[in-house]
């Protein structure tokens, strides 16, 4: 990774972490609930989704404070989805990012409620951000609910569950990932550009960019599950193979998966050119998404 | 119950049921998810919360179509909370309203996701209702998120869990119920009056009304768990005693609980008088909340 990109990611991560900390501190709620919510929000993570939102905003505007609530809300939604995904009834994971999962550190009931609370709080912080107009609030909330709800991420999770222990086609696999991973990335790119004042045509091209970004992200995730370093990843590798899950390497081989990733990167670049913002940090982020080793 | 009140409840229930049906039909999502969401949304229930919202709106305005999305969203939030509450890690209930609970009819994972989906969808339908202004959408979403999230209902659920198998004071008991049950009723009353154009002073008085309503609702719930008819209730009675849960009858005796309820009813009436709308259907609803036998 280039030195400048590394610094960019670190700088933006700080903004996000500070915003999240501020929102969590402002919460006056029962200690057990706050502790459990905060545990997962502060469990680390690269904050790639909210950074993507800020990068998309910055392709059009400078003062990112306007975009911080939408970015923090996105990270809260992502965090809630991980908490619920890790539950015994779902993926039944004991560790995430090298730390105990929420239900292991607290209890299953607390984890269910902490997830529900983060999901709900994410809408609250957008609806109350006085840097946004009412029109912006309504638009952002509609976007976030669509991307994360039954038409978006949750649909992807159901389809992912159904696809376990079952051979599916590349097309079906792409649909699962577009919903499960891609929808939140679409929100990130779209919300940032919308707040930045992008035109309809630019928003349209950026939606395409986001969908390729989601696929790049997922191919790399699958590749890392085969070739990754457990220590860097903070989770065991090879779990996809154990689960008999359909993955890119399984359907295309490792070389085929890498080739597929290159194709998606090319498409992503073309979409940014169509939006006229190929010089923004968005392309570097796409490349980073495809190269990350943890 | 008076005949007129019965007809009023039935008529409004129809409006809510139709609105819910419309919103569920509009959802283009994976069949397994839709089936599970719809199962619980259509599992019956008296729709008291959304009816309360409509009654509060009608104390000020006539055309209830403006209030239908906020009312349907409220019922979806209530439904999601029941689905998650019934999970094995939470109350571990197999039946609700005489039907299998969601995780029993489908699976635990599906129930977690159906709950998440309903919660998220509730914000989507408000944010996209073109009968509302952007200012109204933002205000309603802020209200709903506050009432149902970590500061409201979810806080009540955590406190309720902590209070199990533990003796708590009447004051602590009231706090749990105010959050767990009262907050959604507060949203109902407040959102309806806000959309209807109530003044600040009226909204303030109505918040008080709503808090007493929540307490009335809960005392009656506790009383029914001792004296209720299992067939009418569609659930076993006596479960509170088994759980060693703090309840009004346990703290005050049955007679004491009934007296407490009468006090709350008086307070509720005074709040409506302060708001100048004692002739609305709201008082009859409060009385009904305190008399219901199922």
From TrEMBL, chains A, B:
Tell me where the signal peptide lies. none
The transmembrane segments are none
The catalysed reaction is: isopentenyl diphosphate + (2E)-geranyl diphosphate = (2E,6E)-farnesyl diphosphate + diphosphate
Q: Which Pfam families match?
A: polyprenyl_synt
Please verify whether the record's keywords include Membrane: no
Keyword Glycoprotein appears in the UniProt entry: no
So which cofactors does this thing need?
A: Mg(2+)
One BP term from GO: terpenoid biosynthetic process
Q: What is its EC number?
A: 2.5.1.10
One GO cellular component, as annotated: cytoplasm
| Residue ranges the record marks as coiled coil | none
Gene3D superfamilies hit by this protein: Farnesyl Diphosphate Synthase (1.10.600.10)
PROSITE patterns in the cross-refs: POLYPRENYL_SYNTHASE_1, POLYPRENYL_SYNTHASE_2
Q: What family classification does the UniProt entry report for this protein?
A: Belongs to the FPP/GGPP synthase family.
Q: What is this protein called?
A: Farnesyl diphosphate synthase
Q: Which organism is it from?
A: Virgibacillus chiguensis
């Amino acid at each position: 990774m280039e030195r400048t990109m590394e610094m960019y990611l670190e700088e933006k991560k700080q903004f996000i972490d500070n915003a999240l900390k501020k929102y969590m501190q402002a919460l006056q709620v029962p200690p057990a609930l706050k502790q459990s919510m905060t545990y997962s929000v502060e469990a680390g993570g690269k904050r790639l989704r909210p950074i993507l939102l800020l990068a998309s905003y910055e392709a059009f505007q400078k003062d990112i404070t306007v975009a911080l609530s939408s970015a923090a809300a996105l990270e809260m939604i992502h965090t809630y989805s991980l908490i619920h995904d890790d539950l015994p009834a779902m993926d039944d994971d004991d560790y995430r990012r090298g730390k105990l999962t929420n239900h292991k550190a607290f209890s299953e009931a607390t984890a269910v409620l902490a997830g529900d609370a983060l999901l709900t709080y994410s809408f609250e912080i957008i609806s109350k951000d006085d840097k946004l107009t009412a029109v912006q609030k309504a638009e952002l909330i509609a976007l976030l609910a669509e991307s994360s709800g039954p038409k978006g991420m949750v649909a992807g999770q159901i389809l992912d569950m159904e696809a376990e222990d079952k051979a599916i086609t590349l097309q079906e696999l792409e649909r699962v990932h577009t919903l499960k991973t891609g929808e939140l990335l679409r929100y990130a790119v779209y919300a940032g550009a919308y707040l930045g004042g992008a035109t309809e045509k630019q928003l349209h091209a950026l939606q395409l960019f986001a969908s390729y970004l989601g696929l790049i992200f997922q191919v790399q995730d699958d590749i890392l599950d085969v070739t990754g370093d457990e220590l860097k990843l903070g989770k065991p590798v090879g779990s996809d193979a154990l689960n008999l899950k359909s993955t890119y390497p399984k359907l295309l081989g490792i070389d085929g998966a890498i080739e597929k990733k290159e194709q998606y990167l090319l498409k992503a670049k073309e979409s940014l050119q169509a939006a006229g913002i190929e010089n923004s940090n968005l392309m570097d982020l796409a490349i980073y998404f495809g190269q990350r080793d943890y």
